[in-house]
Amino acid sequence: MVLALSGLTAPSSGATTEFRLVELRKTWTEARSYCREAFTDLATVEHQSANDELLSAARRLGDHAWIGLYDNRAVGWTWALGEEDSTNQYSNWEAGQPDNKNYGQTCGAIKPSGLWIDRFCQVLRPAVCYDEKGPDDYIIVAAQQTWYEARAYCRSHFTDLASGTTRAETNRISSLLTAESWFGLHRKTWAYWSDRTPNSFTNWDQNQPRGRGSPVVACAALHTTTGMWWDVDCDVENYFICQKVYSRQQQTFKLRFKSRADMTDPALQQQLLQQLHHKLETSGLSDFKLRWTQTDGEAFHKEPKTKKQKDVISSKEALVRHSYSNVEFPKLNLTQ
């Protein structure tokens, strides 16, 4: 389906998020607790203009001030093959792993014992590929490669790097090994803000983030003179910047679709939201959230057929709730 929107206007200038500098010295965790109690959360910065507002709020103190970005080495590990976050799933880390030694170990290797270990992605070692169509599920590639080279090779010649999502998979892979080898486990650093917003914008200073030892959690701070970000020990006491997110208006639209597709499929519903989200952004809107509104447990409902519609594909409709700030929608027209 292709969604086409027309008659949309850009949002007006009223801001929905306000940054507040708190001139109390606290650790990052203490600052987050304070912000959540007194405001909304530690500051989330998603674009350069927001970073400029942050710097303005900090009044150029010449010191660091905590913001909401952090990096937890124990979470966010995912599989190259596309499986979701493995944090709460099966894992087989060696004792003390992942330890992020010397900072930046974001790729996973598996030992002949079956234990996992985090390594620097640029180190050369063999790899284990997975082939969903081949006679053998797992293929050992003896050539010494970086993790990224190994992933590219596996995707070119087979399916992808192997995943160890269960004990059985891990045991099968390890039984083939004679040396520590790359498999599909890897992690994106500095992936989330305190309010769980995925991180897509950074403003690190030169040689940052550099890591300090091998902390479980690393925290980001704004340098209040330059506006650049620093990786600072989370236990240091700094001033901090909170954000206050004001309540948003909501508007509900009823959409009608004609399709032979199964509109109850969550994947299809998510695809429609993504397309609608893209169209809104390309039309000049930026500060909004979309979700389906369910009635009787369903988002889509068949429209009763009239006599003239007996030979026509049943129409289906859904409610989509649009959260926004000062946005006007004179007309919303979607076509397949």
Automatic annotation (TrEMBL):
CDD domains: CLECT. The keyword Disulfide bond applies. It comes from the Eukaryota. InterPro entries: C-type_lectin-like, C-type_lectin-like/link_sf, C-type_lectin_CS, CTDL_fold. Residues 19-130, 138-243 form the C-type lectin domain. Keywords: Disulfide bond, Receptor. It holds the Pfam family Lectin_C. The keyword Disulfide bond applies. PANTHER family: C-TYPE LECTIN DOMAIN FAMILY 20 MEMBER A-RELATED, C-TYPE LECTIN DOMAIN FAMILY 4 MEMBER K-LIKE-RELATED. This is Macrophage mannose receptor 1. The lineage of its organism: Eukaryota, Metazoa, Chordata, Craniata, Vertebrata. The gene is MRC1_8.
